[in-house]
Amino acid sequence: MCGKAAELMVALVLAMPHVSFAERDIINGQEFDTLCGFFRLAQRIRTLLDEMKGTSKVDVVIQKEKISDILFGTTAGDASKMVWKPLREMDCGKDSGNPTFEAGSTLVRDIICLCERRDLQQPSKKLCYEENTKHLDSSRWGDSAAHGKTWDDLKAKCEEVHEKGIPTQAEFQKRKDKLKAGIKERTDPTRREHLYTYGGGKEYGLQTCSGTPTQYDGVCVLYPRGSEQDNASGIKWLVELERLVKEVEKITKDEGTSKHTKPSSDGEPSMDAKPNSNLKPSTEGGSPTERSDEPRENRNPDAQTTTTTETQTGLTTARPPEEQKSSAKIILQCIWVFLFWLFV
């Protein structure tokens, strides 16, 4: 048993999830992680509204349109239809000279600003995630189709993390706090700062986000300052998403949806457990499980025969919880013994 436990331990180490983007030596890795979290939250709202369509007393079409506006803008429906300015800094931000430009209009635009490389002037390190090696010709910044292809790759990377459950204000606030912690101010003493910096790979705020890695420029976005108390209050898509989360949470409570999917109380998205397909509904009592208060001698005498037949045909039945706990306890004890002999 202990030998098998040791093999299990090695298998678990090899099967551990990949290291978070933020833990690698990657520019904008933390920022990409954070904005991906908001994208997944918006997608969960869309899924929830789809499930409520036709059964809800509230017309959810308006809320679904708001999701599209938050992600892509009011005139688009996906990244390939978004309208882009001719220069990168006009979409991502510029806080030097006149005129100035700011980011924060849509979530997808900001993610692309943080993660799309230029052809020549590019960071020497990885950008957003390990496999991000594609380059975009700087003369094609206004090319909507090129950005659409970039977003397809970024979207697939964001969706590698699977989350379920009803989005809550507590979860949104936790994500927002993480975003606020990454926003940086400029330390330029010659002028008053107007915009905040997000990303760029520096410990301080930048003046321009044209994608050129210099002392005052980089791959980043520049956000409006908003209020002094909330450095993220000037981000348009964030304000709209927060308002939408409140609306959807109220709708689900009014509709009684929370009885079926319980929101998480710790600010984390809840995970839906898959039902056990091996438990078959009873044809007598209307219950999918056996009645625990019925005397054993009065139960179905063919139960043992049925179990044997299912085992022979390759079907697997669920073990009792006590047996599962016992096996888990034995394996855990063996792992501790293995670790003890390994390090002594």
UniProtKB/TrEMBL annotation:
Compositional bias annotation for Low complexity: 305-317
Membrane protein topology class: Lipid-anchor; GPI-anchor
Region spans: Disordered: 252-326
Domain of life per record: Eukaryota
GO CC annotation: plasma membrane; side of membrane
Signal peptide: 1-22
Chief location of this protein within or outside the cell: membrane
Protein name: Variant surface glycoprotein 1125.1450
Organism: Trypanosoma brucei
